[in-house]
Structures are given as structure tokens and as C-alpha cells.
Amino acid sequence: MKKILFSAIFILILAATVRAEVTIKSETDKTKISTDEALTYKIIVTSTETGVPPPQPQKLEGFAVVSSANSSTVNFTGGGVKSILVHAFILAPMKTGKLKIPPAVIKMKDKTISSQEITIEVTQGKRKIVPLPQQKPGLPQQPLGKQTPEYTL
User: Fold this and answer.
1) Which of 54, 85, 106, 141 could form a disulfide with 145 if both were Cys (CB 3.0 to 4.6 A apart)?
2) How far is 66 from 60, CA to CA, in rounded Å?
3) Domains of the chain in sequence order
4) What are the b/e assignments for 57-89, b being 16+ CB within 10 Å?
5) What are the residue ranges of helices labelled H in 84-125?
6) What tens digit of pLDDT does each residue of 59-113 get?
7) For the chain, percent helix, then strand, then coil, each to nearest 5?
8) What is residue 104's three-state secondary structure?
């Protein structure tokens, strides 16, 4: 009887572990732009686990972050929960050529998962590229998913 009970508990734990899944995907709305354009870059995290840390900010060489937004969706289906977190950024090119957006990375307790690298081809448009004085290269230094409210008086 103890063997059957032990086996049943082991199978339940194994099934819960197998069902737990986290994926991360990066995408852009364009892969070829001119210096007159901007693109939307999204990091999409899909999870059946709880407590998944947000993606780590990466350095974006050759792009300025114009704006950013976060959204989340939680679905309750088939006895489980599935959450989708989307981190979106509007990026403006700061130089021409083939620019690479590095993979987004999530470091968890027992594993590290990452998205794919994206290559963007930037050609010279009519706009002359002028570096923004306050813009630091890369994504915001604040951890993704943790927003500080802004107040205007």
C-alpha cells in the first residue's frame, strides 16, 4: 500500500513539474527601417508557473528607447493558469547598418531561458542622426515589470 501511495505522489509531482512551462519570445514589427522610422520591439513571456522573474534588461547598441509599456493577461483554462506578459518598446535607430537586438534572458532558480537574437537593417533616411543628450543605450535600468509611478503637479 505504501508503494502505491508513494508512486501516486511521485506521479503527481512529476506531472506538475512537466506541466510547468515558461517561454520567452522576442519580436519586432519591422526588420528593415530607415533612420526616419522607429520600430516596436516586444518581449513576450508565457508561463504556467508563478513567481517567474521579469526579463533582464540588455544593452541595445545603436538604438534609443523612445517609449515603453507593459501588459499582462491571465487565462484560467483546463484547471490551470496561463499568464502572458508583454514588455513593448519603441526603438529609434541611432546609426545605420545591420544592428542586432540581443536575446532577452530570464534567469530562474534551476535554468536560464532566452529568446532569439533579432537583426535589424537600418538605412540612411532624410533625418540626420543626433544622439539624445540624456539617453543611455539599452533598455531602462529599472527592472522590467516594476514601474515607478510618475506624478505631475
Assistant:
1) 54
2) 12
3) 20-123 (2.60.40.740)
4) bbebebbbbeebeeeeeeeeeeeeeebebbbbb
5) none
6) 889 999 999 999 999 888 787 889 999 999 999 999 999 999 999 999 888 889 9
7) 10, 45, 45
8) coil
